[in-house]
Design brief:
Order of helices and strands: EHEEHEEHEHEEE
Largest sheet: 5 strands, antiparallel
Strand order of the largest sheet: 2-6-5-4-7
Structural class: alpha+beta
Shape: globular
Oligomer: single chain
């Protein structure tokens, strides 16, 4: 049986892209620790909202919601390496992340209003930039790595667009494909 076009689903998320100069700095960390799987350069991003499996009609509605959100470009500071121990994720801290939290809240609210799906995270939203994952790693090696880079300053990231991405799962890792870019306006409505 052939699936109807409207029933095709894509695994999607909304993100802030990372500029090349910051990707260069992050890749500098890759030579300093072993036994972890680094996120490929093209996949580095800050997730604003994970959507999961959504159909083509929902994708079109989400594009419209993204366009309707009025927010100016903004800056965030990327500083320090940290870890989510339970999930095995190494990430870069976002120091002034209230605007991203508010953006996440606004997207969740509007998508729920328009589509009727609640994408709010059960454990709360924590904006961060994942750069590596691990399964088995010596805890002391990990501790030394975090200690060494806990104050790493990657500088300011100018957030001037929101991307809607498809996550295509392969045998070895996910590959991301941008399917919609929303340039941020000069009309700031969302408060930081």
């Amino acid at each position: 049986m052939i699936a109807k076009k409207n029933n095709l689903k894509k695994r999607c998320f909304i993100s802030i892209p990372i500029p090349e100069d910051i990707k260069d700095k992050i890749e500098g960390l890759y030579q300093d620790i072993n036994n972890i799987r680094f996120i490929t350069r093209n996949n580095l991003h800050i997730t604003v909202l994970f959507l999961g499996q959504i159909d083509l009609i929902e994708i079109e509605r989400i594009k419209k919601i993204m366009q309707d959100i009025k927010i100016s470009a903004f800056n965030i500071k990327l500083k320090g390496v940290n870890v989510f121990l339970k999930s095995g994720i190494l990430y870069i801290n976002i120091e002034n992340n209230n605007i991203i939290k508010n953006l996440n809240y606004e997207l969740v609210r509007r998508i729920n209003d328009v589509i009727g799906i609640d994408f709010s995270e059960k454990r709360g939203f924590n904006a961060h930039l994942t750069f590596a994952r691990y399964k088995n790693i010596d805890k002391e090696v990990l501790k030394r790595f975090i200690e060494k880079y806990k104050n790493l300053d990657l500088g300011l990231l100018e957030c001037n667009e929101l991307d809607l991405n498809e996550s295509i799962l392969t045998r070895s890792r996910a590959e991301y494909k941008t399917i919609f870019i929303n340039k941020l306006s000069n009309n700031r409505i969302i408060k930081d």
